[in-house]
Every structure is written in structure tokens, then in C-alpha cells.
UniProtKB/TrEMBL annotation:
Keywords recorded for this protein, A-Z: ATP-binding, Kinase, Nucleotide-binding, Transferase
Organism domain of life: Eukaryota
EC number in record: 2.7.11.1
UniProt xrefs under PANTHER family: SERINE/THREONINE-PROTEIN KINASE NEK, SERINE_THREONINE-PROTEIN KINASE NEK2
InterPro entries reported in the protein's UniProt record: Kinase-like_dom_sf, NEK_Ser/Thr_kinase, Prot_kinase_dom, Tyr_kinase_AS, Tyr_kinase_cat_dom
Protein kinase domain residues: 10-285
Pfam annotation, one family: Pkinase
Enzyme class: transferase
A molecular function (GO) term: protein tyrosine kinase activity
Name listed for the protein in its UniProt record: non-specific serine/threonine protein kinase
Length: 296
């Protein structure tokens, strides 16, 4: 991490998108004229503990080297502007949220082979993050898996996005929720009853994301709508007593999503198990992929 302005080496061309505490800019290198995407991460109003959480997340994103997710190649700490400027490892065309809206505007759904492709690449990214052998005995929980933070290139290659909400803990164990909260629409049910979470957090979030990409609806809203006036966790239990079925998509895909969306985090598959085929584990992702086209 550098304690200087990014404008010493890059020209900020324009702002591409903006959200709370986070903006994305297009920047151009003054030496090579190469253009890159860059995150502007503001910390002016962060508490001391929130700033510590943010710094740890940024260092994790700097250390990550995974071909299936966006990470930071360099970060500039601009103390005067109270922000970090983080250069991204990969370029992209749009988010999967944008892609979903484009498909819906045309009256189309996302083809199932594309959903499998998204699932495979996202799970491979999570397998890397959740592997303690990759991080000196620690695991990284992404905590920001959602369609708006998954990206597609012009060649339809999908990357899991970076995360300023990620956290790490020594494996085995769990992590206590810090001061930074992520998008609650993709947060797992266990955070409603406990202040600790594991890597199963990300599996739930990915299940929610894939459900939304398949149906156009947020899973959390479906739970509330299915049983109006019923406590959220009770409504979830009642909904999950029924087999998950999504019109136009295979039983195999739906079965995998239902496993990922299990109310009990201990019953959700790990990223590693989703990518393996062991004995009778025929409902695993690897087994399901046998029925997909070559694009998977």
C-alpha cells in the first residue's frame, strides 16, 4: 500500500459508478496510457474499529491471487481525501445484476448453461478464499457475494468481485461479526441469532445470488412474501420444507441451490465439496456438471 495520491501516476478519466463509501473510476497510466478500473474507498466517517476492519479487508484483497475473482494490484492511501484508491486486477463489461436486467428487458431468462458457468467460477473463487492452505492457516470470508458484485467481460467470462467487507479467521473456528455490515438481502439467517459466522456465510450468499439470477427475485423477499406476518426464520423453515423448483431450470440445479440455501450453516456444502465428486455424493456440483454443455 502506498501513502501517496494515485494522480502521481494515473489520470482519473471519469467516474463509472457510485455507491455508499465506494466509487469506481476509469484511470489512465501517465507512462503507458493503459486504462484501468479503480475503486475509490472512502473512510472519512469510519469509526476506529471500522477503519481497522477496512484496512484488514484491503490487505486481504491485495494478497489474494485467484484467477476467478477481482483483487487489488496496488492501493494508494490518499490521507488528504480520506480514501483508498485500489487498482483492479481485471477489466469487465458489466455486473451480473446489469446482465440480469438486460435479459429481463428482452423478455428472456439467463440460460441454464450460463448459470452453471457462473456457479462454477464463483465456487472456484470461494474455494480459494476458504482454503487455509492458501492463507497461512486462515480462511477468508468474502461477505459480499451478490449479483451486483459479480462481473462479466466482453467474452462472457465471469469474476467474483472484490470485497471491502471480507474478514479472515484462523481455521478451524468462526469469526465474530465486526462493525461493517454487508447487504442484508444476501446475509445468511444465522447472523440473526448469533454474532459469529463461518465460510458457510458465502455459500448462502451465492445461493441467493443464483436464485435471483434464475428468477429475477431476491430470495429474502420471496421468504417474506410466502408467509406474510410470520417471523422470518419460521417462514424460512416452512418454505424450505418444500422442494425448491424454478420453472425452466433443471431439478439438478434447483437441488444444488436448495443445499446452498439450507437454514443450518453446518448443512450447507463447502466450496470444496461442491467441486468434488466423492462416492455417492451425486448431488454435488461436479456430478451435476456432467449434464451441462461444454460451456460449463
Amino acid at each position: 500500500m502506498r501513502s501517496c495520491s494515485i494522480e502521481d501516476e494515473y489520470t482519473v478519466v471519469r467516474e463509472l459508478s457510485s455507491s455508499l463509501h465506494l466509487k469506481t473510476h476509469l484511470v489512465r497510466c501517465k507512462d503507458t496510457q493503459e486504462t484501468r478500473k479503480c475503486r475509490a474507498i472512502e473512510y472519512l466517517y469510519h469509526t476506529k474499529s471500522a477503519r481497522i476492519d477496512l484496512d484488514e479487508a484491503i490487505y486481504d484483497m491485495l494478497r489474494v491471487r485467484c484467477p476467478y475473482m477481482i483483487h487489488y494490484t496496488d492501493v494508494y492511501n490518499e490521507e488528504g481525501s480520506k480514501r483508498y484508491m485500489a487498482l483492479l486486477s481485471y477489466d469487465y463489461k458489466c455486473t451480473l445484476e446489469d446482465y440480469l436486467h438486460e435479459q429481463r428487458a428482452k423478455g428472456e431468462t439467463i440460460p441454464e448453461p450460463m448459470l452453471w458457468n457462473i456457479l462454477v467460477r464463483a465456487v472456484k473463487a470461494l474455494r480459494y478464499l476458504h482454503d487455509p492452505a492458501q492463507h497461512g492457516g486462515r480462511v477468508i470470508v468474502h461477505r459480499d457475494v451478490r449479483p451486483g458484485n459479480m462481473y462479466m467481460t466482453d467474452d462472457s467470462v465471469v469474476y467474483l468481485g472484490d470485497s471491502i467487507f471480507c474478514s479472515s479467521y484462523t481455521y478451524p473456528g468462526s469469526h465474530v461479526v465486526g462493525s461493517a455490515l454487508t447487504n442484508m438481502a444476501y446475509a445468511p439467517p444465522e447472523i440473526m441469532t448469533s454474532d459469529a459466522y463461518t465460510t458457510a456465510y458465502d455459500i448462502w450468499s451465492l445461493g441467493c445470488s443464483l436464485y435471483e439470477l434464475a428468477t429475477g427475485a431476491k430470495y429474502s423477499e420471496v421468504i417474506k412474501a410466502a408467509f406474510p406476518g410470520v417471523n422470518y426464520l419460521h417462514a424460512l423453515e416452512r418454505l424450505q420444507a418444500q422442494p425448491l423448483a424454478i420453472p425452466g431450470y433443471s431439478e439438478s440445479l434447483c437441488a444444488n441451490l436448495q443445499r446452498m440455501l439450507h437454514i443450518d450453516p453446518a448443512e450447507r456444502p463447502t466450496a470444496a465439496s461442491l467441486l468434488s465428486l466423492n462416492g455417492s455424493n451425486t448431488s454435488s456440483l461436479a456430478s451435476s456438471l456432467l449434464h451441462c454443455s461444454g460451456s460449463c
